[in-house]
TrEMBL record:
This is Tricarballylate utilization 4Fe-4S protein TcuB. Keywords: Membrane, Transmembrane, Transmembrane helix. InterPro entries: Citrate_utilization_prot_B, NarG-like_sf. Coiled coil: none annotated. It comes from Roseinatronobacter alkalisoli. It comes from the Bacteria. The chain crosses the membrane at residues 103-125, 131-153, 216-238, 253-271, 283-308, 314-334.
Amino acid sequence: MSLDTPILTEAARQVDICNACRYCEGYCSVFPAMFKERTFASGDITQLANLCHNCRGCYYACQYVEPHEFALNLPAALAEARQESWERFAWPRAAARVFHRSGVALAGALVVGIALLFWAAAALQPASGKGFYAVLSHTAMVAIFLPAFLLPLTAIGIGLTRYWAEVGGTRVTLAHLLEAGRSAASMRNLAGGQGQGCNFEDEDRFSNARRHAHQAVMWGFLLCFASTSSGTVLHYVFDMHAPYPLFSLPKLFGVPGGVLLTAGATGLIWLKLRADRGLGAPAVWGAEMIFVLLLGLTGFSGLALYAFTGTDAVPALLAIHLGAVLALFLSTPYSKMAHGFYRVAALIRDAQIKDRQTP
């Protein structure tokens, strides 16, 4: 694909200037990857855009931002290119365009509509089972959530295949996966060039707050996923059904996971409200915010559901929690959630390029 869109063309212009300047070489993985090239095709810009973590340190250090005639704003240029790439790779593409441009309204409608659906399903069926299953049967949960989990994964898989083809990805080795995994787990690209943090929310302040908030969200989400997975194993393999006691794997994973997810999402919201919207992709700011709110609502409603187990509040809380979870799953290929998959793919591709260029 050639640089035939205004967003890709502008990103390539700015990358060319940065490649000539080279002042920001030690800031993050984007610049060493950039400086290895002399010319940039669309696949190169797409790779750099998805490798960028939007920490914004390069913008505040740059001598060519406005009012200079070059008018560089590399974080915004790469954010726009990154967003465009997600829409281009998404399947179906129309869904991505709708969610990215009207994320607040769409996600709000999803949460409310799905919550009402669960509420109605619970009201129309007789109570059976224990705990949550007295409100909504296990069979109904599986029938709803299994396709809601598998279909978004299929869409993400198609998108990643398209991405891999555009950036020129080759055969992945275990070494590539390990290198990308270490970078993703530590989020070292959010630590700034010297490890002192980035300038995401303030030009003059270096902070690791965004890195820590991202790590809390990531590990919180993984712990919640581990909680659900362990509950599935206990249910089907050991015939141990919910509700589970506090000192059980589902609760030992789920409670800390919910706390981390809620705290991390709250931190990201606070940082996002303080940051300059002009250094990102302003057109999708609302969609990005609703994604973080969905993450926070998922964690908080899960904790509330556990805290009020055995009370009359369970049906309403279960409807809200499952509605938030289902909305999060269904929107995954078309929301900011997709950035995790594409960023890991970009880190794997970056590891490949480094491996290829090592003597």
